[in-house]
Design brief:
By secondary structure, the chain is mainly alpha-helical. The chain has a domain of 70 residues. Helices cover 70% and strands 7% of the residues. The protein has a two-stranded antiparallel ribbon with strand order 1-2. Helix 2 crosses helix 3 and helix 4 packs across helix 5. The chain is elongated and about 95 Å long. It starts with a helix and ends in an 11-residue tail after the last helix.
Length: 149
C-alpha cells in the first residue's frame, strides 16, 4: 500500500497545477468576446439596424412621440373642459363651437361655412403649442441642444 501512496504522490507532484484565471485575464477575455460579437453584428443586417438606431436617435424620437401624444391628449381635454365653454359663452351657441356655422344665401344659392370646427381646431393647436413651449422653457430643455463654450 505504501507503494501506491508514493506513486500517487509522485503523480500528483509531477502534475502541473491548473492555470489560475485572474480577474484581469477574465476581463480581457470578456472584452475580446464582446469585440468578436460586435464585429459579427456589424457585418450582419442587425448591426446595420443597431447603427441606424444609435446614429439617428430613434429611441429619443420614440420617447418624444410618446410624450407628445400624452401632452396632446391632455391639452385637448384642457381645451374641451375649460376653453371651449368660455368660447361657447362668448359665441352664445349651446351646441358648442364645433357646431358654429354661418349660412349664406346669394341669388338662390346657399352655402354653410362651418367656421366653428376650424376655430376649435385652431384653439387646440395654439394651446398645444403653448403648453409644449412652457414645458420646454420651464424644464430648460431648450438649452440642451446649444453648444457649451
Amino acid at each position: 500500500m505504501a507503494e501506491r501512496t508514493t506513486t500517487k504522490t509522485k503523480a500528483a507532484a509531477t502534475k502541473k497545477p491548473a492555470a489560475r484565471r485572474t480577474p484581469r485575464k477574465a476581463a480581457q477575455e470578456a472584452a475580446a468576446a464582446a469585440q468578436a460579437m460586435e464585429q459579427k453584428m456589424k457585418n450582419s443586417h442587425l448591426g446595420g439596424f443597431a447603427d441606424f438606431i444609435r446614429e439617428q436617435g430613434v429611441v429619443g424620437l420614440a420617447v418624444g412621440l410618446a410624450i407628445g401624444t400624452a401632452a396632446g391628449d391632455t391639452v385637448k381635454k384642457l381645451v374641451q373642459g375649460f376653453i371651449s365653454p368660455v368660447v361657447q359663452f362668448i359665441v352664445g351657441s349651446q351646441k358648442g363651437l364645433e357646431a358654429a356655422s354661418t349660412h349664406i344665401e346669394i341669388a338662390g344659392r346657399s352655402a354653410d361655412f362651418a367656421w366653428g370646427a376650424f376655430v376649435s381646431s385652431l384653439i387646440t393647436l395654439i394651446a398645444t403649442a403653448f403648453v409644449i413651449y412652457l414645458i420646454i422653457h420651464f424644464l430648460k430643455l431648450d438649452r440642451l441642444d446649444k453648444k457649451k463654450d
